[in-house]
């Protein structure tokens, strides 16, 4: 199966590196909106200009879209789903229904298959929520993120005047996780679930107290959390905060039996050294499933909820039953 | 959707109790090989003789088979899959390919849909293994069971002369779990992964030293494990070991990136107060999916690997995307 990559940032590079772990998937090229002559891939995969997607659509079984959810994917995914099979990692939860509808219309109309919101959240965490809810209909689930770098929150800090660079870690509150794991199903406010830790490089002469106040009071991003702000040098930021680790847990506590006498706790958790490389690996498995579904004539927009798990695996159904069931 | 139960032991009673949590599923009756007049259900569901399955097949959308894997299901599932849609929890891992083939032939030939090996292992743990393997192709996974009651091991102890009753707990070795969670991917022997704890009620005058020796040296069941044996009174067994708790973890550690520089650890874990009630709840969700697949003309034998997750849920695809993605 021939795979293309559109967009060559952290996620695109992750797909390129991870593809070597999926021997049934062949990387045919990277497409970029930059001048292809200025882009050098890590493993020597050819680079094409984005406009070549039109002429090379026949060479691509599935295109993995590695753009951002804020401004790229809302336009890019429906436009390209009209021309080929695509996979994206659209993660603006509130706008998923609208994105799904637009992609579905484009893919259905042209006989293609598209999968949106692949990755781990949305993605594997969504699957965990679904499986946990069907197994324990009477219960309550919780999602904790971190300890990990939130790129959206890091960007929000960088937009503050006087900030040269920043890295923000989302951290689950240990006591909250402990109570949820114990099956207590507590009511938890936003503040009780996560804290936020900011590492900031200020411009010389910038008013650090003002920067700190602007971070702590920023609505949506920080105002509802206990936030700590540390000022460090550019060298320290590069040395100690260069990685993009992330992870988290989905936990559901529920009951069964007479008088709800039996309590059960389910948990799915991830500890990731590299958020983009792990996300990329899930997207490659999604691309495999999309290619198979399209060959069977199963067109339109899909999410991981619609994908039979076996379609994600390179193994045959017989091998899967023998080795993993 | 109308659901029947065949077999009224712990698992059958679990299905009966859990069905109240699945409002779209209606329990039409319990079928038993015992004299129906001697069976009283917990919630007043009608009881029928097993032979009535023939005449009442038209009243059942999906029958949940609550027999044992050793002697019941190998005959029962193929025989009944020829007459109606069925779900079972067949858990003899080594014999799954053979069981699948026989059930598939029976179901396909008669236009029915059957799902085998539902529950949590095989079942949700199998799904965890599959999703983890596709997300992290380069890695190694581990399954730990417990702390929980193994009915097979408890039964094996009960067959020893001089034993009146027994309860066996499977316990994961903490240090092994810690190393696997840390992403070390160690090589572990059977003995290094689990210990076995036995609570035994001996007949009066029985040779306890001999019983203990027979337990510890029993091949397959105990010889490869560090086993502790405690003799207690019948009253103590009833008071302290009446429940059927179980659980465990599937953990996979793997790497991505240049020179495998990034390490990731995925974990799915369960802590269950009642193994049969939790298993039953998963089987009910499987029954929902089987009913839907059969209505769409998707016949033959399935496992959870073949079921699109959305088919397990009572929610519509739109609701699922809005609430869980």
Could you describe the 3D structure shown?
The structure is a homodimer of 325-residue chains. The model of chain A has no long low-confidence stretch (mean pLDDT 97). In chain A, strands 3-2-1-4-5-6-14 form a seven-stranded parallel β-sheet, with helices on both faces. Chain A has a four-stranded mixed β-sheet with strand order 8-9-10-11. Chain A has a three-stranded antiparallel β-sheet with strand order 7-12-13, with helices on both faces. Chain A is α/β, with parallel strands linked by helices and 325 residues long. Helix content of chain A is 35%, strand content 26%. Chains A and B meet through α1, α4, α5, β13 and α11 of A and α1, α4, α5, β13 and α11 of B. β13 of chain A pairs antiparallel with β13 of chain B.
Question: What's this, in brief?
Answer:
2 copies of one chain form a homodimer. Chain A is an alpha/beta fold and 325 residues long.
List keywords for this structure.
325 residues; 4-stranded mixed sheet; alpha/beta; 35% helix; 7-stranded parallel sheet; homodimer; 14 strands; globular; 12 helices
Considering DSSP H and I runs of 4 or more, what fraction of the residues of chain A is helical?
Answer: 25-40%
Count of helix runs of chain A? 12
Strand content of chain A: 25-35%
Give the quaternary arrangement of the chains: homodimer
Radius of gyration of chain A (CA) equals 22 Å
Shape of chain A: globular
Largest interface: A-B, 68 and 69 residues
Provide the spatial order of strands within the biggest beta sheet of chain A: 3-2-1-4-5-6-14
